[in-house]
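FAQ: What does the model actually see?

It sees only this:
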Amino acid sequence: MSDGPAYGFYGDDFTGATDTLAHLARAGLRTMLFFQPPTDAQLDAAGPLDAIGVASAARAMAPPAMKPALMRAGARFAELGVRILHYKVCSTFDSSPALGSIGAAVSTLRGFFPNPLVPVIGGQPGLQRYCAFGNLFAAGSSTGGGEAPPVLRIDRHPTMSRHPATPMLEADLRLHLQDQGLPGMGLIDWRHYTSTSGRLDAQVNGHIESACPAVLFDVLDDAHLAPIGRLLAERSAGVPLLAVGPSSVAQAWTMATRSADSSVPIASPAAALQVQRSSGPVFVFAGSLSPTTSRQIDAAHSYSRVEIDPAQVDAGSLDRYLDDIVTLLRSGKNVLTFTSRAFDQTSNRRDDTTRACAALVRRVVMSMTLRRICIAGGDTSSFAVQALGGWGLSYIGAIAEGVAMCRLHADAEELDGIEIALKGGQMGGIDFFERLLDESARRTTDKPNL
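And it is asked to produce this:
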């Protein structure tokens, strides 16, 4: 690695950004995730870094609101000499022309990373997300009995096809993204990975010569990431490159750039040590309405529960909820606060409700000393972590595939060092919230970066 960070990533939400942080850290890269483009003082505090990230709420923003934040981040990444900027999107690619537009992000960031190749990596097998011939597939819910869950086309997925803000109604990612400003995308299907590197390069060059705005790469297996990683490393060596996709972009990069004799093995959640029991009560806020999170809430037997009706959230009700939550926590009870399952997230009050819930999380944390918290839900996590007022996260260990335990870095003493897990709605097993509490959760052999 050079003196500066070669790898940069910009997360369109906080949960996904921590997943990328985890993959890079487990590969032995010194990595820090910031909440804004880092200042020189924050970089000095972090120490030497191989990779840096910025987490955002872009997935929940309209393009006009996305652009100024992306401009600031793109300029800062370029100033720091980043060779590859990974625009990190959800592995299900849920987005739309009006909300979290991936095309709008590409058009803004390309000015800072002018490589003619813009690769879009279309799957993350570790999360059971697959891209075949340009079409995205994702695992559904387990059928029980130890059987593997069915894998469904994303536009037929029972959760993602009905996402309250950005339902996935088209499985072909080229068609999905053309409505967001990326018409005529090229495709490298999985069969090209078995050919020679020269033939793969020729296919990529052909798409570039055809002036494709981006090139989609199939991913059906982790082995497919190795040739993609080689392309990323080689193509970014001369001209800085913008890549789009889930954390599989980081996986591909580390496969190609880590030295073969590296003394730091790539760790995975499956090969992990146990997480120590939390030193105090754990506070969980679940804003996700996904069926997976609902089942996890039902299975969380070690918590006192506080149900919130988001449609009735106002300043007065926040005080009432706050009193109930803090009273339980001060008595030593773990508390799981969750939004009513009947809430209509398609309502016009959705953003106001999310911000109100984020404010509640901050008020709970500021009301007493907590050492471990968890926030479930992509948009909820993004707004809540921003509301807390810290400036960064470093990696501690893995709770489940796709969910990292992180350390919060903040100037405020009462916030600095809090252990925080951010969980996407569909992530984790049914016992996730129980595993969050004690040694039944699992931790990788990695030490925190800071």
